[in-house]
Every structure is written in C-alpha cells, then in structure tokens.
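SUBJECT: A protein chain and its fold
Encoding: whole-number codes for local backbone shapes
RECORD BEGINS BELOW THIS LINE
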Amino acid sequence: MAVSPAGEAFGSGKSRGRRVILWRHGQTAWNVERRFQGSTDVELTGTGVAQARRAARLLAGLKPDAIIASDLKRAADTAAELTALTGLQPVHDEALRETYAGVWQGLTHDEIIARYGDEYTAWKRGEPVRRGGGELETEVADRAAPVVLRHADKLPDDGTLVVVSHGGTIRTTIGRLIGLDPRSWESLGGLTNCCWSVLGEGALGWRLLEHNAGTLPEPVLGDDD
C-alpha cells in the first residue's frame, strides 16, 4: 500500500474529491531581469499586480474554500487579489517560501552560469545540489508539502485549497505529493508568473490534473529557468 508524505495510507479506494491549486505569484522586476530571487523579499511590478488581478477573477470562479500563502510580499500581494474577490483570509506560512539559494540570490541567470556553471548543470541533471550553498530541493519539499497536506485535510469533501507560492517550491511540492522520484522533479516545467497547477484527489492519492494553466504559453521568467 502506498503512503503519502504525511504518513497517510493510499489505496483504500476512497476519495474525498478535494483539489489543491498551486498558484505562482505575479511578475517582479527580478523576474524580468532573470535574477534569482530565492527567499529575497521582492515586490510585484505593476504588471505583476495586473496579472494577479486577472488570475484571481478566474480562480474565484472555482469557489475556493481556503487560501494559504508564502509570507513573502510577492506571494502575499498575489493572494490579496483573491481575498478581495472571495473574502477568504489567507494563512501565511514561511514554510511556503521559495528555495533559499545562498550566494545565487540576486545574481542573473548569465552570472550564475558564468560563476557556478558546474553546479547549475548538475542541478539540471536532477542531482541533489545546494544551489549557492542553500537548500536542497528535497528540503524545500520537506517543509512545504506537509503544510499543504495539513490544510488540504481541513477541506470539506470536494473542497478546494489555493496555495500561493513560488515556482521552485510549487514544483518540489507537486513532485512530492504525486510521488515522483526527486531526480525527475526537473521534468515538471516551470510555471509562468501567475499561472497555476491543479492536484486532484483520487483513490490512490494526489494526481496532477493541470500544469501551468491560466494563460497561453509564455516564457517562464524566474528561478526555474
């Protein structure tokens, strides 16, 4: 019998029909500059606010039951746009922050390649790498996935949880919840700003229903490229 990251057994043949929507924050200036943000607290641009407002209108139509969010400004301000439409007050949790990436934070993509090319290449191969001396992707999943599961467990049957977070944290959380080997997490493409992925609850656990939804395909700007 399979077991969830929270130690819950899968395979009982029962499903409460819950959904988890993992929503990436809107655009920041560092996204546009292809500068690695990590846990640096960078604000949304005017475009990012507009993206959040547009996406919130779509997500409000799904009638979410609860919102949780990273406490970093770019995620908290994105969540606030959904609060304005639904009245749901988000629970902010630092466990949903983006990967801490040490000396990589604040560097552009080109600067990372130039200074830490071997480290970057190893990460892209799926090897466990402490980018910039920071967190492993499995450590990010260790802190974020249990928070998502805990709040999902509070949902009513057929309920919907919106998780407002960051590209890297969302990818690792999805990988953990659907049971992918960490070496294959990189096969989950990055999320465009203010797009989302949807996990649905099935009889055998969580499964990925949609990925990078919410817009026509656009370049991914951020920490996952």
About this structure: Confidence is low (pLDDT under 50) at residues 1-12. Helices lie at 29-32, 46-60, 73-86, 109-124, 137-153, 167-177.
